[in-house]
Write a structure and sequence with these properties.
The complex is a heterodimer.
Chain A lengths: L30 H5 L22 E6 L4 H13 L4 E5 L2 H4 L23 H7 L9 E5 L4 H14 L8 E4 L4 H7 L6 H18 L7 E3 L1 H5 L4 H21 L4 H4 L4 E6 L3 H23 L10 E6 L11 H16 L3 E3 L12 H17 L13 H23 L3 H6 L2 H18 L27 H16 L2 H17 L4 H9 L4 H12 L9
Parallel strand pairs in A: 1-2, 1-8, 2-3, 3-4, 5-6, 6-7, 7-8
Helix pairs in contact in A: 2-4, 5-19, 9-11, 9-14, 11-12, 11-14, 12-13, 18-19, 18-20
Chain B lengths: L7 E6 L7 H12 L3 E4 L6 H10 L4 E6 L4 H14 L6 E6 L5 H8 L3 E3 L5 H11 L2
Parallel strand pairs in B: 1-2, 1-3, 3-4, 4-5
Helix pairs in contact in B: 1-5, 2-3, 3-4
Classes of the chains: A alpha/beta, B alpha/beta.
Chain lengths: 532, 132
Amino acid sequence: MSTNFQKHFRSLSGLEIDRVYTSQHLKGWTPEVDLGDPGEFPYTRGIYPTMYRGRLWTMRQFAGFGSASDTNKRFHYLLEQGQTGLSVAFDMPTLMGLDSDDPRARGEVGRCGVAISCLADMERLFEDIPLDHVTTSMTINGPAAVVFAMYLAVAEKRGIPLGRLDGTIQNDILKEYIAQKEWLFPPEPHIRLIVDTIAYCTAHVPKWHPVSISGYHIREAGSTAIQELAFTLYNGLTYVDAAVQAGLAVDSFAPQLSFFFNVHNDFFEEIAKFRAARRLWAQEMARRYQPTNPKSLQPRCHAQTAGCSLTAQQPLNNVVRTTLQALAAVLGGTQSLHTNSMDETMALPTEEAAKLALRTQQIIACESGVTNTVDPLGGSYYVETLTNQLEEGARTYFQKLDELGGMVQAIQQGFPQREIFNASHQYQLEIERKERVIVGINEYIEPHSPPIPILRIGPEVEHEQIERLRELRRTRSQARVTAALTTVQKAAVSGDNVMPALIEAVKTHATLGEICTALKEVFGTYQEPAVL
Amino acid sequence: MAGATPLRVLIGKVGLDGHDRGVKLIARALRDAGIEVIYTGLHQTPEQIVASAIQEDVRAIGLSIHSAAHKTLFPRVLELLKAQGAEDIVVFGGGIIPDEDIPILHAQGVRRIFTPGTPMQEIVDFVKGLGQ
């Protein structure tokens, strides 16, 4: 059987792997320089001196489906099960800045996330959840500033000072053009909106993380670990550069930037990726911007197990895959983690499947003993060599991106898209030629694996959401909405920070779609160069 | 078909979802197999898909849907094809589609649904079969 003898030993990213690793692989590598102590530059061993001995990672399960009330119930359920942070998944219309009653939203409302079109939806989403006592992550990019404005308006309405809010908006548009493909405007105005949110947080919501620089989607689109690392960190540096250009001091915002990585199947390569990410970020930030606050050098990160590694065939196997990936993220030193549910190749997770995914993290945290010491794999010839190789590979991409004139130009030329597409094509061919074995796909196949229950979203979600919006438009003051939208456009044109105008607009019950349309009139739209 | 006209298909993303990893792999595999592929790019409405398919005179439309909107978008495409008298264009697709929904889509007129894990060759063979 093909699994018994392997001719080539290569990592998932295509790195050639040797029979055994020795000190010969680490010539020129010095622990004092390349490793450092945990919590010390270059943070290879972790950003905190005590890591999980001091505090476990945040168990943050991404959730969202149906109406705001449906998702609110799931949030309460997850908190009752011991989850320690919230993470909102929005539906496709919301991600694209469209209202639930937009004709382009037909059939998509509440299906792969929660539908949020207006302030009232946001209020329902967080009903009976104390916003000053939870941390909330929102996976929203194109319309991030508007959705963030809604969250801030809910807090304001409840009398919670903005300074007490803690959480994250993803707000990473570059990886949208590269991988996830949900954008509203051309790159330049999008980056300006990101800088506006960074500046607003610096001044008013200091505990908030205004950008979660995301490699997750890049990896899901088929990249290698090296591409994920390279494009993500380069995107991060692009945002830092834009904020510094706009006049912000690096130490005023860099400590609030965070990262979001994928954890795929290749166990040691993934661990090395997290370690390389910290070292590379710390070194590049120090070299380019000379921050004085050490927090500006520390890449805090969230991780999610690889959705693209799950199989619809024999879905119970996905629990095992997710466990191994979660363990890699923990050994890599992540600050928070989402574990995928076994049913996610078919639909959004059921309550039971989501609970099992959370329990997986709790078992790793409480039973495996891996949290007892910091960076247990530090000093391993193999892991340190992989860490060096990943860093080196990423630096080679950095050089290429510099040559192309930066990430925006590279995207417009289709460079990262093409690199990822070629990698995903290669991966697919390897599976089809059985050079890589995926259990249940090209080996150990069962013709009929028993089905598992899946979550169903009924059409009534869309009908009710449309009804509520109709009622909203009928009862609000249209004059106030129109005036607020004009103010948003004025701020967008003038170059003033748009956040105050957005917060005022959502308070008039202007909808997500209306505000995004007003912004599109100023900023324009974007058509990608299709790369095949 | 006589063999003189190359087999031509439209491969596209319909609806709002941006997951294009799978669809691009299929488009490349079909193209590598000598089939003429029109790739629509992202975020197409059913109206745009059907208009392109008729304009390009394709034998089939292959749609990728990962946003769980398949029960709305496939029937809409079929309905528009019918309204234009173009029911001879075969509709097939793939994506994140639960098994129970597949017979429903077949009954509505979708010829085949390919779910995750399908070898690319199987899809190439299916499309080639349409040309015979």
